[in-house]
Amino acid sequence: MSIISQHDQQLIKKEFDALLDNLQRVTTRNNKDKIRKAFNLAYEAHKGQKRRSGEPYILHPIAVARIVSEEMGLGTVSICASLLHDVVEDTEYDLEIIESNFGKSIASIINGLTKIPELFDHKSSLQAENFRKMLLTLSDDIRVILIKLADRLHNMRTLGSMPPHKILKISGETIYLYAPLAHRLGFYAIKTELEDLSLKYRHNKVYKQIEKQIQLNKAKRINEISKFSLPIIGKLNSSGLKYDISGRPKSIYSIWNKMQSKKISFEEVYDLLAIRIVFESEEGIPEKTQCWNIYSMITDIYLPKPDRLRDWVSKPKANGYEALHCTVMGPQGKWAEIQIRSERMDEIAEKGLAAHWKYKKNGTGEDSELEKWIKKIKELLEDSSSDAIEFLDDFKLNLFSSEILVFTPKGHIKSIPKNATVLDFAYEIHSEIGNKAIGAKVNRKLVPFSYKLRSSDQVEIITSDKSKPKQEWLNYVTTAKAKSNITKSLKSEISNRIERGKEILEKELNKHNVKPSSRVFKKLLPAYEVSSKDQLYSMIGSGIIKLNDLKKVLGKKSKSKLVRYWELSFGKQKSQVQEKTNNKFDFKHPFLLHENPDNPGAEYSLANCCNPIPGDNVIGYRDKSGSIIIHKSDCNEAVKLMSQHGDRIVSARWTTHKVLSYLARITLVGIDKIGMIRDITEVISKQLSVNIRTLNLEVHDEIFEAQVDIYVHNTADLNNLILNLSKIKGIDNVNRAEITTP
Question: In the predicted model, is pLDDT for residue 711 greater than 70?
Fold first, then answer.
């Protein structure tokens, strides 16, 4: 056991004292003693252990406990569990010791936070299995997830000391699952920091550029906010309202996300200017009324943008968030967003679930949309038959917070995700309503199952006891609940068909005095053009295969030479795959990409989903055969792979040789004028010697939109081309676009 240096001891004491000095919800001496006891056990358990950064490991659980206490507002049990959260996983201490010292509640939380051992015989993904295990505790204690969020936040704050492939895995998993989870649970500050940190580690250059631009514009922005706020302050003061007004900087990730989705520059992100008004509620006046009164005062001064009004005081968001958002035209012709909240609303927005429950206990709330969402997740968790990867995808679907309100025929309001269909709505009411659906009416008109609902639609589902879910229904639904129920029903139907088919086949074989055997199936499978016994049983059970010619099929001689040939060929292929798999890659160092993937000896291939080109930030994914597939690091599929198969991710970078040309796509928008096509092609072909594959151009209302597919060597060439095209008179903007190939 290594000795802890005096410097480290002082550092540990300083951090633990800071935890004790900022206990928001711990007031009794008994509870503080319990926290000290948890720290002492964790200190002993982790003694001698170091983090990759070189600092004592115990500083990590202390930091997690501080996040749980100071940033989430949780109490004694959560703080103790945070201090002990890695003890069972990383030391010799077991759950029995934890339970005997701290009781069942804390032991249960730590069990939920403890990862499944690497020896776990997983068929899909250890990451997905661990995530599902953590979520299973929703049924008992949601504090597991809150502590896991705090754990992830501290890991992201200290991620720089990790090797590149670990950074990719953890930051990808964070943006895919943990940031949306924090958002859904109402922890806006934590969600924002997770998003920013993920962007920092996945796209460091872009992150620093936006950060620099924000700093350069900081003084100007403060000045603009002051000028903008002064008339509002005067109006609020004259009303006698007690309030706090502050500038709200837009996060780096949200700026980047808007730039990506809208294809705009930093300067064009119009809601960079934003303020927040938090008021002290007056007794006897509903908070909703006070919010609208403030809105009225603001719109007496500034002109509002009607399509940017967001009313979450009449109907809170699914995560419990309440506020009134409006966008108004400022004095210098710039749009500014204003958030209006009461102190209660502000605490719920910042502290999320913990604050929501605090006010619920005070008797101010009934079952919220957030609690309804938690019930939906519990329903998903109850389906133990689902594969871990399928579960992860279903859970991800449930994280989307963009929702619309629709009505039942009796006028009851239902909250469903944006882009949900009438079939999603049927399953939202009840799984049996969905399974027996034969049609739907929206606003009293018949619509197909694929009809996407809009806010305020009134929906009626028509059912029949004879109806059953069909395979194509999966194309009509978007919600996890609907997909899960349809898949379960289809699996059940397939299982029934297989059993029925097996009985029919065995009965028919019996008539010919033949018993099922591998020799018999070697004749049956090719004769009926199926690849497996289950497929044969299913097709017999559904009546597709009639078995009228069974005697003739059984009488045929087996082509044993052909069978042996294919078995031998298959065996050879298998050994080649095994050999390739055993050729392990060094994940700790970047995988160098030589620009010749068409070479038969190439060690990697380029993903069709995002078509990366040299110069793009990329990552590698090692598939089951051992091959490396290269994705752009911001590709949605790549982010998904990082969160599900982090152990197969390898960092990658391009070499700088110009060997091959790669297909890329750019889009142009501008004012139509004579000679525009000539100007565009001259820049592309003559000035920069770039080959054009296709050029599509449409003109409407004197505005042209063009899409050009070109061959370039790397992103430097592409960026140079975009810069030169943007200089053409009449061109408004030029952007790179994604090419997806089937």
Answer: yes
Region 521-537 average pLDDT: 80
Mean pLDDT, range 430-434, rounded to an integer: 89
226 token code pair = 């002051």
Pairing outcome for strands 649-654 and 591-593:
parallel
Instruction: Based on the residue annotation, tell me whether 369 is a catalytic residue of this protein.
Output: no
pLDDT at 444 over 60: yes
Beta-carbon count within 10 A of 487 CB:
19
Task: Please provide residue 546's backbone torsions phi and psi, each rounded to the nearest 5 degrees.
Answer: -95, -20
pLDDT of residue 218: 80
Give catalytic status of residue 307 as yes or no: no
**Where does the pLDDT of residue 201 fall: very low under 50, low under 70, confident under 90, or very high at 90 and above?**
very high
Type of residue found at 538: S
Q: Cβ of 658: how many Cβ atoms within 10 Å?
A: 12
pLDDT at 184 over 90: no
Phi/psi-derived region of residue 611, left when phi > 0, alpha when psi is between -120 and 50, beta in every other case = left
β-strand pairing of 691-700 with 703-712: antiparallel
Rounded to the nearest angstrom, the gap between the alpha carbon of residue 283 and the centroid of all alpha carbons in its chain is 41
| pLDDT tens per residue, range 303-360 | 998 888 989 898 887 677 889 999 998 877 778 889 999 999 988 887 766 565 555 5
Distance in angstroms between the alpha carbons of the first and the last residue of the chain: 57
Q: Helix/strand/coil (H, E, C) string of 581-619?
A: HHCCCCCCCCEEECCCCCCCCCCEEECCCCCCCCCCCEE
Instruction: List the catalytic residue out of 33, 89, 140, 647.
Output: 89
> Active site residue: 55, 90, 99, 387, which one?
90
- What's the Rg (C-alpha) of the chain? 31
pTM over 0.85: no
- With beta carbons less than 8 A apart as the criterion, state whether 635 and 611 touch: no
Domains, the chain, in order of start with CATH, read 6-210 (1.10.3210.10), 402-478 (3.10.20.30), 489-558 (no CATH), 662-737 (3.30.70.260)
Angle at 369 between CA 366 and CA 372, to 5 degrees: 90
Alpha carbons 162 and 170: distance in angstroms, whole number = 10
Q: Which residue has the higher pLDDT, 40 or 142?
A: 40
